[in-house]
Design brief:
It is a single chain. The protein is globular and about 80 Å long. The chain has 20 helices and 21 strands. β19, α19 and β20 form a beta-alpha-beta unit. α1 runs antiparallel to α2 and α6 packs across α7. It starts with a helix and ends in an 8-residue tail after the last helix. One of its GO terms (molecular function) is cyclic-guanylate-specific phosphodiesterase activity.
């Protein structure tokens, strides 16, 4: 029995293999695995060995492997396993000449909770007798065309787009052009909830519709995983606004749109070069990217913005911050702040949330909104989170030693950690190093993380409770979470975003929505925490709606950890 999904996973693996995408390969491999290459010595049993093999195999940039044709067929070998045979016809371009090569790959796949994953690979290269050598010769023109095309979508890749854009500006010098670069919001969520097969369909649909929208004087390409670029004739901002809406409305076909659980949106940057012939194509794309990155891609809307010179200044300032981040850890410049949470029934402090401020040499403070998003774009957030966890545990240990009545403290953790299998063990090791009772740590993840890493979070929630930690959903009301997800996920605390309470004094609709969220939290055995309470009117509103705990400036602003201990953890703390 054939498995279409297994065949599509195999095709995706081969595409990642040929473009040297180690991250993409890693997402498709099971553990443990085996990989037998064409040579007798090519036997691998771990992803790390595969990575080393790939770097060696594809280490010579002068040798290009270009996919001309691929045929795959699967054969079921059990309820949870299947075998896929793949025959590849590759164009090989090297300094010595161009040729064609046929490769056979046998892939063993296993059905796991997250879908089919590859657990075994055997690749071989058929032997061609000398008299057949002419049959595998191809022209450089054919190989060049393959090299400039994206294997998944068929439109230009980055190199092809740059070449095509350069030709257009030479052929149509009288045109005014704008460079567009956009990414798909929450694309990883689409892959995780709908599967890589549907994710690939989305990319192909976007590519096809984007290409169809281009005239002969325009071009487009898929330049990264879910990043697309276009060079479009510019006829004014009003006309461009109309085109951007057309692109948004036609990203995917209606039938595919109905299959997806979320709307497809993009975040885009536009660069209008003052001198089209005076800049490199990639430099103009980079400016479109700077504009794109100035927007918040976590929002569930399509947005675009034109590049302005001050954006580059902002990008440079952000780069400077990132360069100083490591030394800031070493010098202790990241300061632990805590904002108290107050129980409405008693008016007493019930818990706190760990926050951070970056202290500068002159004593001024940089707020987290200026640097946490930067850290989230890099692996540095992983080290930073563990540093802040260690810092919190050090304070908790000292307070426990001093005999203070320590309250549970919640700490935010990046979604990036969920991609690492040993994350919880490492987290627990830090807490246990300081002998902190697990019930004093509230593990806090944003709502969007619960959606993006759906399967992983369900497993993690169970393991957290087995370890004795509490789990909180932060910023509820700002993402895509479904009621069904909340009913299945055993979180302990629901932190309701301030946006739902900010106008509850005046807006009846806000009151109704907030009331239903609080009721839902209680019915699913969660503590309802309302964030961002700043006025007495807001406090009265959430009190009447049955909220359990509040957090906000009305009671207290975030304060240095020692001030929090002195005010709220004294042996005879006074209710606020």
């Amino acid at each position: 029995m054939r498995s279409v999904e297994a065949e599509q996973i195999a095709q995706r693996f081969i595409q990642c293999y040929l473009r040297r995408d180690l991250d993409g390969i890693g997402e498709l491999l099971a553990q443990p695995l085996f990989w037998i290459g064409a040579e007798k010595s090519d036997v691998f049993y771990s992803f790390e060995d595969v990575c080393a093999h790939m770097r060696q195999l594809h280490g010579d940039p002068k040798v290009q492997l270009l996919l001309e044709n691929m045929q795959v067929e699967s054969f079921s070998s059990g309820r949870d396993t299947t075998t896929v045979l793949a025959f590849l016809r590759l164009g090989v371009e090297a300094e010595s000449g161009a040729s064609m090569l046929t490769v056979r790959m046998t892939l063993q796949l296993r059905s796991l909770p997250q879908g089919w994953r590859i657990c075994g690979i055997h690749s071989s290269v058929p032997y061609f007798p000398p008299q057949d050598a002419s049959a595998v010769q191809v022209t450089r023109r054919q190989l060049e065309e393959l090299r400039l095309r994206d294997a998944l979508t068929g439109i230009y890749n980055m190199e092809g787009f740059v070449a095509a854009a350069d030709q257009l500006r030479r052929r149509w010098p009288q045109n005014t052009y704008v460079f567009l670069k956009f990414g798909i919001n929450g694309f990883r969520y689409i892959n995780r909830t709908s599967g890589f097969v549907v994710g690939d369909q989305v990319l192909r649909h976007i590519a096809g519709h984007l290409q169809a929208s281009c005239s002969e004087q325009e071009t487009c390409g898929r330049v990264e995983k879910d990043i697309f670029a276009a060079m479009l004739v510019f006829r004014g901002k009003a006309d461009m606004a109309r085109r951007m809406e057309q692109i948004r409305a036609a990203l995917v076909d209606e039938e595919l749109r109905r299959q997806l659980s979320v709307e497809i949106n993009f975040t885009a940057g536009l660069y209008l070069p003052p001198n089209l012939q005076g800049e490199e194509i990639k430099d103009m794309l980079d400016k479109a990217l700077v504009a794109q990155q100035s927007l918040d891609s976590s929002r569930a809307v399509s947005e675009y913005v034109y590049y302005a010179p001050e954006m580059s200044a902002r990008w440079y300032a952000d780069s400077q911050l990132m360069a100083k981040a490591m030394s800031a850890i070493e010098s202790g410049a990241f300061k632990l702040y805590i904002q108290p949470q107050v129980e409405l029934a008693t008016g007493s402090p019930a818990a706190g949330e760990a926050l951070v401020r970056w202290q500068q040499p002159d004593g001024s403070l940089i707020m987290p909104g200026a640097f946490i998003p930067l850290f989230e774009h890099s692996e540095f957030i992983l080290e930073f989170d563990f540093y802040m966890l260690d810092l919190l545990c050090r304070h908790l240990r000292r307070w426990l030693n001093e005999g203070r009545p320590v309250l549970p403290i919640s700490i935010n953790q990046s979604r990036r950690h969920l991609a690492h299998s040993r994350y919880l063990e490492d987290f627990c090791a830090v807490v246990d190093k300081y002998r902190i009772p697990h019930e004093l740590i509230v593990f806090e993840l944003t709502e969007s993380t619960f959606v993006e890493y759906n399967d992983e979070v369900y497993v993690m929630a169970r393991r957290l409770h087995e370890m004795g930690f509490l789990l909180a959903i932060d910023d509820f009301g700002t993402g895509y979470a479904s009621l069904n997800m909340l009913s299945m996920l055993s979180a302990d605390i629901l932190k309701i975003d301030r946006s739902l309470a900010i106008d509850c004094e005046k807006n009846r609709r806000s009151v109704v929505i907030l009331q239903k969220v609080v009721e839902m939290a209680h019915e699913t055995k969660m503590i309802a925490v309302c964030e961002g309470i700043e006025t007495a009117g807001q406090l009265d509103c959430v009190r009447q709606l049955g909220c359990d705990v509040v957090q906000g400036f009305y009671y207290a602003r975030p304060m240095p950890a020692e001030d929090f201990a002195g005010q709220y953890l004294a042996p005879c703390a006074v209710s606020h």
